[in-house]
Amino acid sequence: MTTMENTTHGPNSVETFVTSPSQAEKNYNHYDPTRERVPHKVEGEDDAYNNSSTDSSDEYDTDLEVEITGKPSSKTGGETDPDVICRDVYGRWCDKYPSRHKPFPQSHISKSLSEKTLHIKHRSIGGPAMFPISAALTNNFRVQKLDLDGADIKEEGVIYLVKALVDNVTVSHLNLSNNNLEHEGTQWVAYLLTKNNFLKHVNLSGNKIQDRSAYHIATVLEVNKSLDHLDLSHNQLGEQGIKLIAAALAYNSCLKTFRLNWNHIRRQGAVALSQSLKFNDCLRLLDVSWNGFGYEGSLALSKSLKENKTLRELNLSNNRISWHGALLLSRGLKLNVGLHILRIGHNPLTTTGCHDIVNAIAAGSSQIKTLDLEGVPIVAETEILSSFVRLKRDFLLLHGGIVYLPDILGERRERKKDHMEVVMEYIKATLTRPLEMLKNFDKTTSLVISQDEFVARLVKADVPLHKSEMRILANAVADKGRQSKTGSVDYKLVPIIVIINLLTKTTVNLVNFLPEISNSTVFVFIQWFYFHSFEIYKRRIIHSRGRDVA
Q: In this predicted model, what pLDDT tens digit does every residue of 518-531 receive, in sequence order?
């Protein structure tokens, strides 16, 4: 196998090879399809080729005899049409292949040379067979689509093909899927795409492309200005390779469809690809199904969906996205205004995750018209919610069936608030100063409140707690905080700490004053009391000083 030293030289120069050339490269340099439509005699060629008065039927025994000799050809000096010339070139170069293993002409290929699509699908013709086909394509202005799926041309065949297509202005669709191109063949295709500005649709699926080929693919995304469809599915691109491709994709200005399904995209690769969508403004379809986006990819994708406005279809099927990831994606979908089709089936979303996604589509500014949750069951509430979306616009929900009970995994239950948290929320809502609230509870101004009085004052203040819960709270404060022998609530330390901090302008750790506090909630409550009071005193001092200066 060979490598290219500098792609700027192109395959037209022997200098591009840094190792001894293979037979394919020798043939490649020997073959020059830029000659006349009917090539000149090569060295050692039979003079019978140039005999204008004889038939060429004895040169080789194939099924192309009638097609080649049925009309006057350039060999006879008569008038010809382009179709006959292409078929004639194909037949000639099958015989002139400079190797013992010459490819046999095929009538199917010969006929297809005069059609818009050249089908050589699943024929396993091998690399040598591309030698005469490339010669015929050089001056062919009929073929617009070239389908070589499963032709097994490998690197040898790609070399011939690149020579023919590098200056071609007719072929716009090139299917090279399942041809075992690997790294070397991918290099040649990348070179072709950096030179040819007429190819729009390229399929490189199933070619064992790995991370070391990612640089060449990234170069194509940076340089090429005509490619709008690229298929790299069923390859072996991993994290490092996808990071290179994602960096180029972020600023690509022409690609509209990008298929990366069935690769090894996960973690850093998934994050990098998701982040590229923040900057890309031309991609319409992205297929990353059958990868491993997981939680990390979902988080990055959620942020990108909030900003991307051009992506229309996203396929995230089979990506190990759990209900955590579904919750993250729902936040991005709620603000996304461009996406129309989302496929996220066959993921462990659970019924909760499905409901979060549908709820985001219903409640936010989303314009999604098709939501594919194939293989994932939903609850009846989710189906009802989707019906409300249909009242606004056309909406299709595909799912794995309706179940009566939600999944235990992912079920979201509301956490019951602690009693002290309820009191803290009440104080914030009423803008009450904590220290003054305690003083209002303490009618005797002794800085000690009995538990009964504490509960009575909470009831009078309309704190949203049941009386039994207030009793539990009073016991917790009395038992765990500073308390008198009678079990009353003692709040002497609160004003002392405030005064100390006002004088020293430092923060005093309450743990030094209340070492016996073990209940974290009570500690947070008292700590919050202190800070709230301290801020009020500080503002009063600043205000009074400003007034004095004025």
A: 344 444 455 555 55
The number of beta carbons lying within 10 Å of the beta carbon of residue 43 is 6
Distance CA 52, CA 19 (A): 43
With a cut of 60, say whether residue 433 has pLDDT above it: yes
> Cβ-count burial of 93 within 10 angstroms (0-12 exposed, 13-18 middle, 19+ buried)?
buried
Contact 126, 72 (CB under 8 A): no
Reduced to 3 states, what is the DSSP secondary structure of residue 285? Answer: strand
Each domain of the chain, given as residue ranges in start order, spans 419-549
Helix (H), strand (E), coil (C) string for 247-269? HHHCCCCCCCEEECCCCCCECHH
Task: Tokens for 537, please give them.
Answer: 């005193």
User: 257, 245, 249, 254: which is closest to 278 by C-alpha?
Assistant: 249
CB 89 within 8 A of CB 39: yes
What are the Cα distances from residue 364, in Å, to 108, 223, 359, 369, 418? 55, 38, 8, 14, 32
Alpha-carbon dihedral of residues 261, 266, 269, 270, nearest 10 degrees?
A: 70
Under a CB-based contact definition with an 8 Å cutoff, are residues 2 and 25 in contact? Answer: yes
DSSP 8-state class, residue 231: E
Q: Residue 41: exposed, middle, or buried by beta-carbon count in 10 A (0-12, 13-18, 19+)? A: exposed
In whole angstroms, give the CA distance from residue 132 to residue 117.
17
Q: Give pTM, 2 decimals.
A: 0.68
Number of other residues whose CB lies within 10 A of the CB of residue 490 = 18
Q: In whole angstroms, what separates CA 469 from the centre of its chain?
A: 50
Q: Is 329 helix (H, G, I), strand (E, B) or coil?
A: helix
Whether 498 and 454 have beta carbons less than 8 Å apart is answered as no
Residue keyed to tokens 């099958």: 94
The continuous run of DSSP H or E covering 201 comes out as: strand 201-203
102 token code pair: 């010459």
Q: Is 398 helix (H, G, I), strand (E, B) or coil?
A: strand
**Any idea what DSSP says for residue 164?**
H
Residue 182 near residue 158, CB atoms below 8 Å: no
Secondary structure of residue 420 in the 3-state scheme? helix
| Sign, CA torsion 425/429/434/438 | negative
The pLDDT tens digits of the residues spanning 263-297 come to 999 999 999 999 999 999 999 999 999 999 999 99
